[in-house]
Design a protein that fits this description.
Blueprint lengths: L1 H6 L3 E10 L6 H9 L3 E10 L1 E5 L5 E5 L4 E6 L4 E8 L11 H8 L8 E6 L6 H11 L4 E6 L10 E3 L2 E3 L2 E8 L1 E8 L2 E3 L4 E7 L2 E7 L2 E3 L1 H10 L3 H10 E6 L1 H14 L11 E10 L4 E4 L8 E7 L1 H18 L7 E7 L3 H5 L4 H9 L5 E6 L2 E5 L2 E5 L3 E8 L9
Parallel strand pairs: 1-2, 7-8, 21-22
Antiparallel strand pairs: 1-5, 2-9, 3-4, 3-22, 6-11, 7-11, 8-23, 9-10, 12-25, 13-20, 14-15, 14-20, 15-16, 15-19, 17-18, 17-20, 18-19, 21-25, 23-24
Helix pairs in contact: 3-4, 8-10
Length: 401
């Protein structure tokens, strides 16, 4: 009653619903209750470890560890919106035609500029699903997250008037798109190493110049140069960045085309992954990603100040690139390991966004994994804030949230 009374019965194009896990057992009752009082053409949302939302007075908040419901109604003149549900147990073949994926999703790529994607925690083959959508919709930015698990006998996703499993999505086209911003929240430590030997997800040998050693030996050299404070962080906040070369190549090519020589040497981009094990017998290290010889890696530390600086800079970059198109709203899919646990207080990511976009309405969820692009491909992340800034390129009328 409180939420629907604030929003009113006016017709909307899109309703975004994010629900804290406290209401898991009552999730099937939610949409019928909302639809009695609210009007929207498309309904989509999920269950989260916490929610992000904006009050009618314009205050944006992250609500953690408290029962909460976040609903946003959006009017998007000139938008082409298509919602869909995917059965993740029956993925098309990644080695087959992209048309099989297009038929499976049921969305015309010509009308899809962005995809918001929400996955149930029981979803099968998440990485293959994301890769398949990249295969079928290479020009569409993809942003979203994995809902949180629960003990009730139903899914964690909301679509239309149903609670479902698998995956749900919203295709956004026409005059509107989602501008993705992915903040991983880590800073590099030590040099960049080249992988000399690897098996699947296990690093066996690294090199720096002519010097080769086991990953553990390389890490020990890095630790020797750290401050006492950073060595303390290493005990619980150490990760590995795996370089994504496609981003480097794309930036260099763009620099050549534009005549910008500085763009030919872009900042290196690393996909941050968990370190999941060490073999003391040979100094090998297992990482939560497949790696191969020839790739570059760099150890990373996760801490609040680096997270703030990175998120602020990336959002500022987006603002500078689209100065003539301020975002109508921001969708935030943040790891449950961020929030007050990382920043030491509430509204960490939201307050950073409000420094760049002071009046930006924000909605979203704390997720069990975040989805966003890096290095020319979409990835499933951890400990990350994935933003989708909703923009209208050429307004066709008044847009309101």
């Amino acid at each position: 009653r409180e939420v629907t009374g604030s929003l009113g019965p006016a017709q909307a194009d899109l309703a975004l619903i994010f629900v804290s896990s406290h209401f898991a057992s009552d999730l099937t009752r939610l949409l019928p209750l909302l639809k009695q009082r609210l009007n929207a053409r498309h309904w989509i949302g999920c269950l989260g470890g916490g929610v992000v939302g904006t009050t009618t007075s314009g205050d944006a908040h992250e609500v953690e560890r408290t029962a909460a419901l976040s609903i946003s109604l959006l009017n998007l003149p000139g938008a082409e919106l298509t919602s869909f549900r995917l059965d993740s147990s029956q993925l098309p073949d990644l080695d087959g035609s992209a048309q099989h994926w297009l038929d499976w999703v049921g969305v015309d790529p010509a009308g899809s500029r962005s995809l918001m994607l929400l996955l149930d925690p029981t979803c099968d083959a998440i990485n293959d699903l994301i890769s398949g959508l990249d295969y079928a919709y290479p020009d569409a930015a993809k942003v979203g997250g994995v809902a949180v698990p629960h003990n009730a006998d139903h899914g964690s996703l909301l679509l239309g008037d149903q609670v479902v499993t698998g995956a749900v999505g919203l295709s956004i086209g026409g005059s509107w798109c989602l501008d993705p911003v992915v903040a991983q929240g880590c800073r590099p430590i030590g040099p960049v190493f080249a992988i000399e030997q690897a098996q699947r997800n296990v690093l066996l040998e690294l090199s720096e110049g002519d010097r080769r050693a086991s990953p553990v030996a390389c890490l020990q050299r890095v630790l020797a140069d750290l401050s006492a404070e950073d060595r303390e962080l290493v005990q619980h906040s150490l990760f590995l960045g795996v370089e994504r070369q496609k981003l480097t190549a794309d930036a260099a090519l763009a620099g050549l085309r534009s005549g910008d020589a500085s763009a030919g040497s872009p900042e290196r981009a690393f996909l941050v992954r968990n370190l999941i094990g060490v073999d003391p017998r040979n100094g090998a290290v297992a990482v939560a990603d497949r790696v191969r010889a020839g790739q570059n890696v760099q150890f990373q530390l996760r801490e609040a100040q680096a997270s703030r600086q990175e998120a602020r800079q990336l959002l500022q970059n987006s603002h500078m690139q689209h100065q003539d198109s301020a975002p109508l709203a921001g969708l935030l899919f943040a790891c449950m390991g961020r929030g007050s646990g990382l920043f030491g207080g509430p509204d960490g990511d939201v307050s950073i966004a409000r420094e760049v976009f002071p009046t930006l309405p924000v909605a979203g969820s704390f997720c069990n994994g975040e989805i966003g692009p890096l290095g020319g491909a979409t990835h499933l992340h951890g400990y990350t804030a994935c933003w989708g800034l909703l923009r209208c390129d050429a307004p066709t009328g008044d847009a309101s949230a």
